[in-house]
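Students often ask what a holo structure prediction actually looks like on paper. The answer is less mysterious than it sounds. You provide the chain, you provide the ligand, and the output is a string of discrete structure tokens encoding the 3D arrangement of the protein together with zinc ion.
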Amino acid sequence: MKCCESYKSCKEERILLFKKNGFDIKQCKKCGYRFTNLDEVESHLASVYSDDYFFKGQSGYPNYLEEKDILIRAGKKYAKIVDRYTKPGKVLDVGSAAGFILKGFEEAGWEGQGVEPNDTMASYGRNNLNLKITTGGFEDFDSPYTFDLILLIEVIGSFYDLDSAMKNVVRQTKNDGLVLVESWDRESFVARIFGKKWHEYCPPTVIHWYSDKTLSDLFNYYGFKLLAKGRPSKRINISHGLSILEANTPKFLLKKRLIGFFARKFGKRNISYPPFDLKWYLFRKTS
Ligand SMILES: [Zn+2]
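The corresponding structure tokens follow.
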């Protein structure tokens, strides 16, 4: 990972892989780091994580709040995994949204804190779930505490300033503390089959794309060691699944009407999402 130490000033050769949504998706020839450059960093969080992201579908959610129970259960499942390596302590959820996963951790005995750029989500968690959630981006997040565990659930691909975010992860993690990452695997067969049409190639929402290797390299570089990895048993709301399908499949006859029909009829139910392209990784801070 040395060559991408500071990826903005890195002199290694970057190959243009393809274009998506008008963004160049590039890869470092030496370490395999895959990314795109944002031209709008200032307004990035406000424009990407607007209320539309949580309520209007496409690369976001049709209605995030409907996934409450699924996500609380997902939080509890992750707490069980982490339980094999450490006792409950202080946990920080980065990009916590309304705090449902965090709530799952609290129910498993953890003391939670969240940070979330979207204020509608953060307020929901504060007001309805009685959680400590700070509104803002993680790159500038500061806390008087250090944490036994940091959660990076589907956010590691989205930091607009990866180096600042990772330095903050280092700063906020206790010595020997853990970081749980949930990340989409660009080397999965789903990602390979879909190619540039893979749903995670959705800049500017996602800016970095990892494989097992490049994710481990990144964490090793910042002083973490991989302890374990696996695949989450993820359940999603059917209307969320249909919304991903609609945004990522070519137009066909009656597509909108068919998808609309299924969304009305089954949208509120939950299904198992086959986690072919999603993984979790647990890292321990070593230095
Ligand atoms: Zn590199």
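The mean pLDDT is 87.
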